[in-house]
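Most newcomers find our protein records easier to grasp once they have seen one. A record pairs a protein's sequence with a compact description of its fold. An example says more than a description, so a record of this kind follows:
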Amino acid sequence: MKQKRWKALPMLLLMMAVLGSGSVRTWKNLAVQAADAAALTTDTVEKTAQESVPFYHGMINLNTFFQMTLGKNVIEDTAEGDEVVKLKNGYLTFVCEPADVTESARSLLSLQETCKENGAELYFVLTPQKISKYDPELPTGVQDNYNPMADAFLAQLGGQVHCTDLRQVIHENGINQYNFFFKTDHHWTPEGAFWCWGQVAQILKSEYGFVFDDAITDLNNYTVTTYPNCFLGSQGKRVGTVYAGVDDFSVITPNYAADFTLTVPDKGIDRSGDYVNTLLVPEMFEKKDLYTDNPYAGYIGGDYGLCHIVNHQPPNDKRVLLVRDSFACAFTPYLAQACAELDTIDKRAFPQTIASYIEETKPDLVLFLYNAAEMPAAENFQ
C-alpha cells in the first residue's frame, strides 16, 4: 500500500505544478468566454466559473495548497486582476494598482453645486478598506494603494465637502480595524457596519438636524444571531477554504417594532412589513453552500441600481439619497430607521446621472458611502 502511495505522489505533484502554472485561470477564462463576458462583474465571473468548470472548488483548494507549500502570500491563479494576498494577521485582501482620483474629486465638487441648487446638503462618508491605514499588515513586497488613493481624494476635496473618514474615527477610538472585517471577504462585518453607523448617526443629529431616538444606535436594543462557520467571502471563494478557513456570520435585528416598504423598480421587488421581512432577506442567511451562497447580501437583498425605502414610523420628515457601494448593504437597514424616506443608488447598475436624480427627487441630504475601491472611476460620482 505504501508503495502505491509513493507511486501516486509524482502524479499529484505534477497536477499541482500544472495548476500552479495557471490552469485555474485558463479554465475560468474559457468559462467566461462561453458566457456574455461584457455583462460579467468580478463576482459573476467567479460564479460562472464555479458553475461551468468541472471540479472547480477542488482545483482551487489544490492550487492554493501547492502555493502555500512554496511559502507564497499572494495567490495569483485566480481571475486576472483579483490576486488574493494573505496579510500577516491571517486576513485575506485584494490589492490594486495606483490610480488618479482627480476627476472623481472634481465630479463630487460639481455635484455639491447641484445639491445647493436643489436645496440638498452633501455629506461624504469614507468607509475603511480591509487594509488598515495605520496597521497595514502587508507581507514583504506588497504595496497598499487603496489608502493613498483615499487620502489623495480627500485632499483634493480641499475641505469643500463635509466628510467623515471612518478609518480615522476607528483609529482614534483605539479599535483594531481588522475586528470590523471578515477574514475571507472584502466587506466589513454587520457589527463593524453597526458601530460605524453609530458614528454617522451622531453627525446626522449634530450637523444635519436629524431627530431620532438613540435606541436605534445602541446594540443592546438588538438581537445578534451568529451562524458559525457559514461564510466564505469574495476572497476566500477565490483561494478555497485551506488558506484562511471560513467566517462566522451575524444577523442583527431590533428588539422593537418597525414598519417599512422596500421597492426595487427594475427587479419587480416590493416588500412591506417589519424590519426582518422588509430590510433583510432571511432565507439568504439559512443557506449552507460556502461557494455559491452569499449571506452578506441578506442585508437589504444585495446591490440594486435603485431602491426605495419608506419608513412608516418615521422619527422625522427627512428624505435621504444614499449613493452607495456594496459596503452599504449592511449599513442601509440602520440608516433607514433614522429618516422618513431613503432612496439608494448604486452607480454600477444605475444608468441615470446622480445630478438628474437629485433634480428630480430633491432630497434633504445626499449621503455618499464609498470605500477607496470606488474612487478611480469618475462615473461613480456623476
Summary: The first strand starts at residue 74 and ends at 75. Residues 2-33 form the longest helix (32 residues). The CA atoms of residues 311 and 337 lie 7 Å apart.
